[in-house]
Design brief:
Blueprint lengths: L1 H25 L10 H37 L10 H24 L12 H16 L4
Helix pairs in contact: 1-2, 1-4, 2-3, 3-4
The protein binds protoporphyrin IX containing FE.
Amino acid sequence: MLFIIIKTIHLFAAFIYGGFLITDNLFLNKMPRTLNEEEHKKARESFMMFVRKVVPPSLIVAVITGLYLISQVFGTIGEDGMSHFQMMLSLKAFLGIWLGIRGFAQVYLKIQPLVFKSHVLPFAFVVTIIFLSQFMHAF
Ligand code: HEM
């Protein structure tokens, strides 16, 4: 039961974090097409004010609940190495932890990445994570 509760929390946190990245990369980035620079800056800031309150904590929740989930499902590594499930799950966890560390450093420690232009990289990571989290059960 605890596992299901934590997994549901994990999924919601992933929705909120991934949902923002999808909104940003598919829709918000189109705003400059119809708004001038000043309007775009204002509109984006009014959106980001609330994003900053909700999205970074969701990422942290996703990572912490993810660590619990992996401790429950990873299992032991067999004699002939990791199973496909274990490999895909490890890659998923690596990408998730990477996003968590990067996001935490950026938002809470104010350490900006070397090149910060957009949210395309985290978006690509999240899409990959979603595919891995589904297909890892199929192999
Ligand atoms: C941005 C970070 C993350 C996102 C967006 C994310 C997303 C997801 C999604 C969509 C699922 C599928 C849930 C389902 O099908 O019911 C999932 C499952 C899972 N996640 Fe994450 N995750 C993230 C981080 C992590 C991290 C850091 C770990 C481990 C260290 C992790 C471990 C797991 C495990 C073990 C499952 C599978 C549970 C199971 O089906 O048995 N996740 N995650």
